[in-house]
Amino acid sequence: MRNERPTFNYRLTSPGQAVATLKVHGEKVEFELSNVSDPLNDLLEGLVATITNPSHIWGEENSCHISWYGESSTYNWTITRTDDEHCTVCVKEVVGFFDDDNEYDLIEFSCKFHSLIFAIIDNLDRFIKLHGMLNYSQLWQKGEFPVTQFLFLKKALIDNGKWKSSRKRKDTLSNEILMLLA
Q1: What is the Cα–Cα distance from 150 to 134, expressed in whole angstroms?
Q2: Which of 155, 114, 144 is nearest to 38 (CA)?
Q3: What residues does 93 pair with on adjacent strands?
Q4: How confident is the model at residue 99 (pLDDT cuts 50, 70, 90)?
Q5: Between 123 and 180, where is the model more confident?
Q6: Is residue 47 within 8 Å of 64, Cβ to Cβ?
Q7: How much is the pLDDT for 116?
Q8: Mean pLDDT across the stretch 111-116?
Q9: In 3-state terms, what secondary structure has residue 174?
Q10: Percentage of the chain modeled with pLDDT above 70
Q11: Quick check: helix, strand or coil at residue 100?
C-alpha cells in the first residue's frame, strides 16, 4: 500500500442514479449507485465521526464502516485513521445483497487523511456549486445534500490550512444562498 493522494468524482447520471469514482496510484474503482441508500450522507457522516471521536489518540481503533448500494452490489468501505495524519481505505464489493461469500476486494490504500477529505470535498464543492441543492434533491429523488457534514469537513480543511476560499464567481449555490437572504 502506497501513501498516494486519491481522487474522487461523484455525478448524478439519471434520476435516483449516481456514479462515484475513486482513483489512486493508477487504480480506478467505479461505483454505480442507486438512491436505495444515501451514499454521500453516509460517506461524509463517517468521515466526520472519525474527527469528532478521535479514538486513535488513545490507542484505540478509529474506523468508520460505510455501505453503499447499487442495483446488484453492495460496496463496503472501511476508513481507518492510523494517526492524526494518515488513514487506510479498504473497499470491498459484495455481489448480491445477502451473500457474504461473494465479497471481493476492490481497492485498498493508505494516504494522508486530509488528502482523502480534500479529494471528496473538492469534488463535491464543484458539484454542488454547479447543480445546487434544489437540483440535487430533484435529481437524487431521496434525501437532501448533506450540507452540515459537507461544511464540517470543509471547515476542517480550512482549519488545517488545506483549503483556501475563493469568492470570485457566482454560481448556483451562491444564488440559492442569496434567495435565503432576500
Answers
A1: 16
A2: 144
A3: 75, 104
A4: low
A5: 123
A6: yes
A7: 97
A8: 96
A9: helix
A10: 90
A11: helix
Spatial CB neighbours of 43, under 8 Å, sequence gap ≥ 6? 66, 68, 77, 120
Residue 121 one-letter amino acid: I
CB 31 within 8 A of CB 8: no
| Residue 82 phi, psi (nearest 5) | -85, -25
- Could you give the C-alpha distances from 102 to 113, 124, 164, 179, in angstroms and in order? 29, 31, 43, 49
- Model confidence pTM above 0.85: yes
Q: What is the mean pLDDT of residues 43-72?
A: 93
* Residue partners of 93: CB distance under 8 A and separation at least 6: 73, 74, 75, 76, 103, 104, 106
Helix extents (H) in 8-146: 39-52, 113-140
Q: Which helix (H) or strand (E) holds 177?
A: helix 172-181
Distance CA 141, CA 125 (A): 20
- Do strands 62-69 and 27-34 pair parallel, antiparallel, or not at all (unpaired)? unpaired
Instruction: Report the length, in residues, of the chain.
Output: 182
Closest CA to 162 of 126, 112, 124: 112
Residue-wise pLDDT for 117-141, tens only, equals 999 999 999 999 898 888 999 999 9
